[in-house]
């Protein structure tokens, strides 16, 4: 993507108080961070500002608290971040008011401070002007490095961009660059692989994609709805039969836009949704009435691989089967490995996103081989739906 917004290259941060919006909404269990990927992603922006003598003031939300709730404090996350970046990270018990002001005043050039969960104040999500002003008092500039929260028009993700000089952080820059190469100005032909449980959560996404990509592979539970709409008996499979007309409409739109829809031609079927449940691959004309489709079959996998081979760019969201349950992860895992191999051979630009998708790529051991793996969930989906993201739009205002 061309640079339509300012970045850290456009500002001298030395001595400045930099309000840096990051996404510290990481998975935690028993007070410990179980996946530090998001912390690793924001580390380069934090250390760059610190190394250049800026005072780094981290703003972030955690969870969806209703008011102040110690269980959703950012303190343990700030401690985990300190370990990742191998530098001290001070902590303030509030993101506005005296506690925040005192902690900011104590900062020396290059120091790093994390402010408490912005969502402890309901005004954050309301993008309340008074709250934005309180936050803005703490900084000289605002840097947004939280693409994964950019679909929220909240005070710290959007409001501050109207109040202070606004810049994109390095992670935001990398994300926009990778996503731009995937859908906005891609090397063609472009293929999308869309899987996951349900069509209902991805209708807007499918409708946007058929106008942007040359081929669309539909897998996972959502493919069952499309198969049902075409008259295939899908037994007891997860299928949103009331969305048959929607599925047909999407197929018509794809046809009109010259986008090839690639649906499964066979399926791996079991009698129960359980790991290692006895299973068998069937053609679509022979799905047992008491069976459940839990993965794409071997012929479908071969077609998906051929479609990947024909593509120069791949964008992927959603697993092709019930990947949490072996052996029903096979379609997802081997297709991910195939895409990774093509990427390593420099024949494919591959971009993937979505919580379960990233987990599936990690399971396949190939997340590191994709050109870009987004840690964004909702923001990635809204981007795929073609919706403007408020936290990105505000950066473009100049
Ligand atoms: N054939 C199937 N039958 C039932 N469930 C399936 C099937 N195929 C995939 N799924 C389920 O779909 C779920 C993942 O879909 P989802 O749309 O949530 O993916 P995602 O967009 O990558 O993740 P997230 O919503 O976390 O960002 C998994 O739990 C998987 O088990
Ligand atoms: O985890 C995420 O996807 C982001 O941090 C946004 O969180 P939210 O869905 O609670 O706004």
Total strand segments: 17
> Helix amount, in percent?
25-40%
Count of spatially separate domains: 2
Per DSSP, the total helix count is 15
Q: What are the low-pLDDT stretches, counting only 5+ consecutive residues below 50?
A: none
So, CATH architecture of the largest domain? 3-Layer(aba) Sandwich
CATH fold-type name of the largest domain = Rossmann fold
Specify Rg, calculated over alpha carbons. 23 Å
Just give the CATH class of the largest domain.
Alpha Beta
Largest sheet: 6 strands, parallel
- Basic shape: elongated
Bound molecules: adenosine-5'-triphosphate, 3-phosphoglyceric acid
Binding site for ATP: 202, 324, 354-357
EC number: 2.7.2.3
Pathway: Carbohydrate degradation; glycolysis; pyruvate from D-glyceraldehyde 3-phosphate: step 2/5
Binding site for substrate: 23-25, 38, 61-64, 119, 152
What does this structure look like?
The chain has 398 residues and is α/β, with parallel strands linked by helices. The chain has 2 domains: 8-171, Phosphoglycerate kinase, N-terminal domain (Rossmann fold), CATH 3.40.50.1260; 186-384, 3-Layer(aba) Sandwich (Rossmann fold). The chain is 38% helix and 17% strand. It contains 15 helices and 17 strands. The strands form 4 sheets. It has a 6-stranded parallel sheet with strand order 5-6-4-1-7-8, with helices on both faces. Strand 7, helix 6 (155-163) and strand 8 (166-168) form a beta-alpha-beta unit. The radius of gyration is 23 Å and the shape is elongated. The site of 3-phosphoglyceric acid has 8 residues, from loops.
């Amino acid at each position: 993507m061309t640079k339509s917004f300012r970045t850290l290259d456009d500002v001298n941060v030395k001595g400045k108080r930099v309000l840096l919006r990051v996404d510290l909404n990481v998975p935690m269990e028993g007070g410990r961070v179980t996946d530090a990927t998001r912390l690793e992603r924001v580390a380069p922006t934090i250390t760059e500002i610190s190394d250049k003598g800026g005072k780094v003031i981290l703003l972030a939300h955690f969870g969806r608290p209703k008011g102040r709730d110690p269980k959703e404090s950012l303190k343990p996350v700030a401690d985990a971040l300190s370990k990742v970046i191998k530098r001290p990270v001070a902590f303030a018990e509030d993101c506005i008011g005296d506690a925040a002001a005192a902690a900011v005043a104590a900062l020396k050039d290059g120091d790093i401070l994390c402010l408490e969960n912005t969502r402890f104040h309901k005004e954050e999500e309301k993008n309340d002007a008074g709250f934005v002003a309180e936050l803005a008092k703490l900084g000289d500039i605002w840097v947004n490095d939280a693409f994964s929260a950019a679909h929220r028009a909240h005070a710290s993700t959007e409001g501050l961009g109207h109040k202070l000089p606004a810049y994109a952080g390095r992670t935001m820059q990398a994300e926009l660059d990778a996503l731009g190469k995937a859908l906005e100005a891609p090397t063609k032909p472009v293929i999308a692989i869309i899987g996951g449980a349900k069509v209902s959560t991805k209708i807007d996404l499918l409708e946007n994609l058929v106008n942007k990509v040359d081929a669309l592979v539909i897998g996972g539970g959502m493919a069952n709805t499309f198969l049902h709409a075409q008259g295939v008996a899908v037994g007891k499979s997860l299928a949103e039969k009331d969305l048959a007309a929607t599925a047909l409409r999407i197929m018509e739109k794809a046809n009109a836009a010259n986008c090839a829809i690639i649906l499964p031609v066979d399926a791996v079927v079991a009698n129960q949704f359980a790991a290692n449940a006895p299973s068998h691959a069937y053609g679509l004309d022979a799905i047992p009435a008491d069976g459940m489709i839990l993965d794409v079959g071997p012929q479908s996998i071969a077609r998906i691989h051929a479609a990947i081979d024909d593509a120069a760019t791949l964008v992927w969201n959603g697993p092709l089967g019930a990947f949490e349950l072996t052996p029903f992860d096979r379609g997802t895992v081997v297709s991910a490995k195939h895409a990774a191999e093509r990427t390593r051979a420099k024949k494919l630009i591959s971009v993937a996103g979505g919580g379960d998708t990233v987990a599936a790529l990690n399971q396949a051991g190939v997340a590191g081989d994709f050109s870009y793996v987004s840690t964004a969930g909702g923001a990635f989906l809204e981007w795929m739906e073609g919706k403007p993201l408020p936290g990105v739009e505000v950066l473009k205002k100049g």
